[in-house]
Amino acid sequence: MKIKKIFAICFILFLVLGCTNHNIENNNYLTTSGDDFEIEELGNFSFIPIGIGADEILTVEYYGEYIRIPYRLQGLANSIDSEFGWFIFVDGLPQPSYLETLTGEVMRKSEYIHMFSLGYQEYLEFYIVFRPISGAINTNVSLMAATLLQPNFLPNSKDNPLFFPFHNLFAPISDIIEINYEITNDFLVSEYKNLMPISKNLIHDISSFHQATDISTFLRYSPMIEIIPRDKELQINYEDLIVAKNGTIYLQLLVFGGQNVTNRITFFVNHEPVQANGVDFFKIELIEGYMAVIDVTIEADNLNEFNSIYAIMMTTGDDFRMQGMFKSPSLLLVSEE
After folding, report:
1. End of a domain among 179, 203, 227?
2. pLDDT tens readout for residues 141-159
């Protein structure tokens, strides 16, 4: 495995709290009390490969052996511990990985997401270790390290199921894996091609929520992925919740906007990838002005009374150069059992 360097950006995340109102322009979230506004910090941290400069992208060559990449994570919040989940995607799919200390001891077992809580200036350095699960030989595929803010948060009532601003996804520019070894897998995939014009209700919802005056330009650069309860009107409502009946989850997936690229979509229940409609992921190539609406059924085991559910969409193949990773808002999944 060889590592090379090319031009890119530094991966630093600054996140602050939000409750009822938010200021999108300044990327600050505000809590309100009468006429008073207060900014409250939820997390402030950084992550970057060790030995990679602030203006570089990581390029890794894969020849069949385990890939080991040294990373440094650091907490930067003055008053609180920064809690976040950290995971990687390869070629548009969630990639299990384990962590090793820089001296070679196993630090954490293989997981899809690793949880961290770091105090001010507290840092961890480790190798992330994995074999890529996807990628055609003699091609370049994306390697995306991303974070999820306060992944352990769950609403405590069905009457107030909002996650915002918890579970916010931060996905920087993608690194690269050069695949020089044949990868075999037995993924089950559903390729969805039945598109329809974007609903006028959704256009209205997006314009209102995001205060977008030029909705076509907004959607071109801001792909939308949403999950809603099955058989509800096609509209965006982040106060929705999903009900599982005897472990079966029924919902609809809405996808629209972005570039005309090939996307892979994976569902997550309590941050673990799950099969939907009997497949590991959906494959969708969107067209400007059109949307995909898919009825989804998920069979889930060992649900708690309250759970989180969301979907993540990421581009695959060479398309990762045009578009990155996007997450649906987390919804509260309630088990009737």
Report:
1. 179
2. 999 999 999 999 999 899 9
